[in-house]
Predict the structure.
Amino acid sequence: MPRRSNHIHRLKKHKYSTGNTIFFCTLPDCHYKIDSALALGKRSICNICSNEFIMSEYSLKLVRPHCNDCGKVKVKDHEGKDRFIKKITNQILTGVAADSTSSLRSRLDNVTGAADEEDI
Protein backbone atom coordinates (compact mmCIF):
# COMPACT_ATOMS: atom_id res chain seq x y z
CA MET A 1 0.00 0.00 0.00
CA PRO A 2 1.49 3.41 -0.98
CA ARG A 3 2.28 5.78 1.82
CA ARG A 4 0.39 9.09 1.83
CA SER A 5 2.38 12.24 2.33
CA ASN A 6 1.31 14.53 5.16
CA HIS A 7 2.67 17.80 3.84
CA ILE A 8 1.72 20.53 1.41
CA HIS A 9 3.76 20.40 -1.76
CA ARG A 10 5.98 23.07 -3.30
CA LEU A 11 5.30 22.64 -7.00
CA LYS A 12 7.28 23.26 -10.14
CA LYS A 13 6.10 22.78 -13.72
CA HIS A 14 7.78 20.40 -16.13
CA LYS A 15 6.95 20.24 -19.83
CA TYR A 16 7.66 17.03 -21.73
CA SER A 17 8.74 17.03 -25.38
CA THR A 18 5.28 15.71 -26.29
CA GLY A 19 3.74 18.93 -24.93
CA ASN A 20 2.24 17.42 -21.79
CA THR A 21 2.84 19.40 -18.61
CA ILE A 22 2.92 18.22 -15.01
CA PHE A 23 3.66 19.72 -11.63
CA PHE A 24 6.05 17.91 -9.32
CA CYS A 25 7.00 18.55 -5.72
CA THR A 26 10.47 20.02 -5.16
CA LEU A 27 10.67 19.17 -1.45
CA PRO A 28 13.24 16.51 -0.51
CA ASP A 29 12.06 12.88 -0.31
CA CYS A 30 8.76 13.67 -2.06
CA HIS A 31 7.86 12.06 -5.38
CA TYR A 32 4.46 13.72 -5.86
CA LYS A 33 3.41 14.48 -9.44
CA ILE A 34 0.12 15.81 -10.79
CA ASP A 35 -1.15 16.76 -14.23
CA SER A 36 -1.27 20.54 -14.68
CA ALA A 37 -5.01 20.67 -15.30
CA LEU A 38 -5.71 18.67 -12.13
CA ALA A 39 -3.67 21.01 -9.90
CA LEU A 40 -6.36 23.72 -9.99
CA GLY A 41 -7.69 24.33 -6.47
CA LYS A 42 -4.96 22.32 -4.73
CA ARG A 43 -2.98 23.70 -1.80
CA SER A 44 0.63 24.54 -2.53
CA ILE A 45 3.58 26.38 -1.00
CA CYS A 46 4.58 29.67 -2.60
CA ASN A 47 7.99 29.51 -4.30
CA ILE A 48 8.80 33.09 -3.21
CA CYS A 49 7.50 33.64 0.33
CA SER A 50 6.89 29.99 1.41
CA ASN A 51 3.31 30.70 2.51
CA GLU A 52 0.48 28.32 1.74
CA PHE A 53 -1.93 29.25 -1.08
CA ILE A 54 -4.49 27.62 -3.36
CA MET A 55 -3.56 27.14 -7.00
CA SER A 56 -5.52 29.42 -9.34
CA GLU A 57 -5.79 29.51 -13.12
CA TYR A 58 -3.07 32.17 -13.17
CA SER A 59 -0.68 30.14 -11.03
CA LEU A 60 -1.18 27.10 -13.31
CA LYS A 61 0.53 29.08 -16.10
CA LEU A 62 3.66 29.74 -14.04
CA VAL A 63 6.73 27.48 -14.01
CA ARG A 64 7.27 28.18 -10.30
CA PRO A 65 3.81 29.03 -8.96
CA HIS A 66 3.51 31.74 -6.33
CA CYS A 67 0.72 33.31 -4.30
CA ASN A 68 -1.17 36.45 -5.28
CA ASP A 69 0.77 38.53 -2.73
CA CYS A 70 4.10 37.80 -4.44
CA GLY A 71 5.24 38.47 -7.95
CA LYS A 72 5.48 41.66 -9.95
CA VAL A 73 3.10 44.29 -11.26
CA LYS A 74 3.53 46.66 -14.21
CA VAL A 75 3.62 50.40 -13.41
CA LYS A 76 4.64 53.52 -15.32
CA ASP A 77 7.63 55.42 -14.00
CA HIS A 78 8.07 59.20 -14.01
CA GLU A 79 9.31 59.09 -17.63
CA GLY A 80 6.23 57.19 -18.82
CA LYS A 81 8.05 53.90 -19.36
CA ASP A 82 6.56 50.59 -18.21
CA ARG A 83 8.44 48.95 -15.33
CA PHE A 84 7.83 45.82 -13.30
CA ILE A 85 8.15 46.07 -9.53
CA LYS A 86 7.45 43.60 -6.73
CA LYS A 87 3.93 43.81 -5.32
CA ILE A 88 5.20 44.23 -1.76
CA THR A 89 7.38 47.12 -2.91
CA ASN A 90 4.32 48.54 -4.67
CA GLN A 91 2.58 48.92 -1.29
CA ILE A 92 5.52 50.97 -0.05
CA LEU A 93 5.57 53.04 -3.26
CA THR A 94 1.86 53.78 -2.96
CA GLY A 95 2.51 55.69 0.26
CA VAL A 96 5.43 57.54 -1.29
CA ALA A 97 3.33 58.38 -4.35
CA ALA A 98 0.51 59.74 -2.19
CA ASP A 99 3.00 61.98 -0.35
CA SER A 100 4.57 63.24 -3.57
CA THR A 101 1.17 63.93 -5.19
CA SER A 102 -0.01 65.93 -2.17
CA SER A 103 3.28 67.84 -2.25
CA LEU A 104 2.85 68.48 -5.95
CA ARG A 105 -0.76 69.58 -5.42
CA SER A 106 0.26 72.09 -2.75
CA ARG A 107 3.02 73.49 -4.98
CA LEU A 108 0.61 73.82 -7.92
CA ASP A 109 -1.96 75.54 -5.70
CA ASN A 110 0.70 78.01 -4.58
CA VAL A 111 1.68 78.76 -8.17
CA THR A 112 -1.85 79.07 -9.52
CA GLY A 113 -3.09 80.96 -6.45
CA ALA A 114 -0.32 83.55 -6.80
CA ALA A 115 -1.08 84.02 -10.51
CA ASP A 116 -4.79 84.66 -9.81
CA GLU A 117 -4.01 87.35 -7.24
CA GLU A 118 -1.67 89.19 -9.62
CA ASP A 119 -4.25 89.26 -12.44
CA ILE A 120 -6.88 91.03 -10.30
